[in-house]
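User: My advisor asked me to double-check a structure prediction for Ferredoxin--NADP reductase before group meeting. I don't want to rely on an old file, so could you generate it fresh from this sequence?
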Amino acid sequence: MSESEHIYDITVIGGGPVGMFTAFYAGMRQLDTLVVESLPELGGQVGTLYPEKIIRDVAGFAGIKGAQLVTSLHQQMNVFPDFAPTVATNEEVTAIEKNDDLFTLTTTKGQYQSRSVVVAIGGGSFAPRKLALDYDETLENKRIFYFVKNVADFAGKTVAIAGGGDSAIDWALTLEGIAKKVYLIHRRDQFRGLESSVQRLHQGSIELMTPYLIDNVTDGDTFNLDLKKVKGDEHLDLPVDALLVNYGFTADNRALRNWGLPLEHRLLKVDENMETGIPGIYGIGDCVTYPGKVKLIAAGFGEAPTAINEIAVKLYPERRQPLHSTQLEH
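Assistant: Sure, here is a fresh prediction for Ferredoxin--NADP reductase from the sequence you gave:
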């Protein structure tokens, strides 16, 4: 049977952590599942951008590296071999069409048919917010970094981190015991992170450079940051080995618009069952909106069973539905 003739119960669009867990849970419900991911590998933003970052909002782990989380999710997806998902990577969905009770998904490599669709694309495509100043771009991945692939690269070095949110604070705390010296540069005296992380920040050896902005960077015999005090004329020269910029990312979820799905503030509007305004299409994770929505991996993990159980009821109403987690083992 050709792929276009095979009919899946569920197609999950997006292979990040939330999409991977969705595929696993669908396997527990014995649903024939396809995962389509535009990147060459599963793992999404966590696997691509934060393999070394400690993630703390996953239940059961005091902290787990992004790469370790993705590896664990890979293993979890294949716990039930007979219902392990089919995975299509490096493949982008370009169109979704509904004919009666069947969806046809056109991708950059072909077509798939599915009885339901779960959209889990997170924030969509992403790019880092870069330094708002002119600098030699050949310094990127040599002196100036926007991603950390291996924390060992910063061992014994003097590192400056720019930013004041959770990501910048997390990297400062992670590198504190690895780098020779860590500076955290922020334009305000207050930080926008979790209270527990901010407390650790003030109790450790990280030197807080506030309120300063990076006005210029120069590279020669040494790599120097010219820091300018906010609302003042004071300048400070800071020699470092590396600068890690954490100003956040710009996200582009134009795929949602291209697919013609109902949006609210550029996000998928879903109901209490995570279903969109198009019956059979569901949304979970950072790409959706509803009253009280929280953009955390933990929240996305919780939304997945809601969507999958609703789909299972509609596709196979004769099956016994799980009442609680322990019954899923039988």
